[in-house]
Write a structure and sequence with these properties.
Blueprint: H1 4-14, H2 19-26, H3 30-38, H4 47-60, H5 65-78, H6 80-83, H7 95-104, H8 108-124
Length: 125
């Protein structure tokens, strides 16, 4: 079965449209359209953009986007840039980072006067 980009290019050629026509209708640059058709997904910054562009392109040339997107997921997994999604939570924090974060969240306008009052009471009692 042909790759996603090849299917899109074939559908575009069947409609006798050029790269510029697709670029104008999808609001992409013609080099981005060519990259999609050639399967050079690494030129895009994130897989979400590739999926969105493929979906728009497929609808434009009257292809059902669902099977294309399934095939696209397999193709994207082969690209090293898109294999591992970055963690949304970041790395686990250690004890020091957690303490620093906790102290940064303390309402100091309340704590400092309270500590000063407690120290004065301790001194005079």
């Amino acid at each position: 079965m042909p790759m996603v980009g090849e299917q899109l290019a074939s559908a575009r050629e069947a409609k006798k449209w050029g790269l510029e026509d697709i670029a104008r209708l999808t609001k992409l640059r013609s080099d981005q359209v060519l990259a999609l058709e050639e399967g050079r997904y690494h030129v895009f910054s994130a897989p979400v953009y590739v999926r969105g562009f493929v979906k728009s392109y497929a609808k434009l040339v009257n292809i059902d986007p669902a099977p294309l997107l399934e095939k696209l997921n397999g193709e994207l997994n082969k690209d090293k840039k898109f294999q591992q999604a970055e963690s949304l939570t970041g790395p686990q924090r250690g004890l020091i980072e957690w303490c620093a974060y906790a102290l940064s969240r303390v309402p100091w306008k309340i704590v400092v006067p309270l500590v000063a009052v407690l120290m004065l009471i301790a001194i005079f009692v």
